[in-house]
Amino acid sequence: MALLPPIPLYRRLLRAHRKHLPPQMRLLGDEYVKAEFRAHQKLDNPIHLIGFLTEWQLYAQKVEGDAWVGEKLDRAKIEKLSDQQLGQLYELMKAIQNHDPDDEPSS
């Protein structure tokens, strides 16, 4: 798998959200992608950059193929997360759990 450069990958992620996610999930996903790419914009360690791009590219493939529905997180990946990353994951989980389907805009 050839890695996409950051900007084309960023665009691909937003496009995948637009095409494959319901509006509320798209909003949450877009905000998260934008924040993560902003936070990692100045990565200078090539290993971290490759890891970052690889994981986001795998995520894009899953969203595009609807393979993400019902998928559980890999335990090995969870064990490698820092305390800060675990906190972010927890906040994301809470945001998803607090999602009220009645708040979705009508089409």
TrEMBL record:
Keyword Chaperone appears in the UniProt entry: yes
- Supply the alphabetized keyword list: Chaperone, Mitochondrion, Transit peptide
Has UniProt tagged this entry with the keyword Mitochondrion?
yes
The entry's cellular-component GO terms read:
mitochondrial intermembrane space; mitochondrial matrix
GO-annotated biological processes: mitochondrial respiratory chain complex II assembly; succinate metabolic process
Where it sits in the cell: the answer is:
Mitochondrion matrix
Matching Pfam families:
Complex1_LYR_2
Q: Which InterPro entries match?
A: SDHAF3/Sdh7
Q: How does it assemble?
A: Interacts with the iron-sulfur protein subunit within the SDH catalytic dimer.
What does this protein do, in the record's words?
Plays an essential role in the assembly of succinate dehydrogenase (SDH), an enzyme complex (also referred to as respiratory complex II) that is a component of both the tricarboxylic acid (TCA) cycle and the mitochondrial electron transport chain, and which couples the oxidation of succinate to fumarate with the reduction of ubiquinone (coenzyme Q) to ubiquinol. Promotes maturation of the iron-sulfur protein subunit of the SDH catalytic dimer, protecting it from the deleterious effects of oxidants. May act together with SDHAF1.
Q: Which PANTHER family match?
A: DC11 ACN9 HOMOLOG, SUCCINATE DEHYDROGENASE ASSEMBLY FACTOR 3, MITOCHONDRIAL
Member of which family?
Belongs to the complex I LYR family. SDHAF3 subfamily.
Q: What is this protein called?
A: Succinate dehydrogenase assembly factor 3
UniProt source species: Podospora didyma
